Amino acid sequence: MEAPIRYWHSISEVITIGKTIIVTQGDTLYKAIRLTTLDGRSYTLVSGDKILFGIKERPFPAAPHIILKTLTENEFYDGRYILMLTAEETNITAKRYYYDCGIKMSDGSYQRIVKCSHFIVEPAVTLKGDVED
Fold it and tell me: Does residue 133 fall inside a structural domain?
């Protein structure tokens, strides 16, 4: 059995427990997730494993997801999984939301890799629709 997964990395820094993600309303957001076991080895998803990244207005299980992304082994590039939130997905009310991230393993078990943290959408002055092609 693999050692539990310790944390995930973003492109620029390690995202650990309590790390806030900030995005400007209507911008595309890219984050890279690198899975590492407790003993420091890389972990790669196997067929049937899924990374789940969810955003909610309130940090309660019954609250509906504003955004729920699923990553599989198909989103693995250059040693990491690429999470992309589109401009349409981040074009939501500017305010503080909550996110967490976990892995649903192919055997049905679930392991949270980032506990509930803040996801802040900041207001934008100019949106992509403001510019004529």
Answer: no
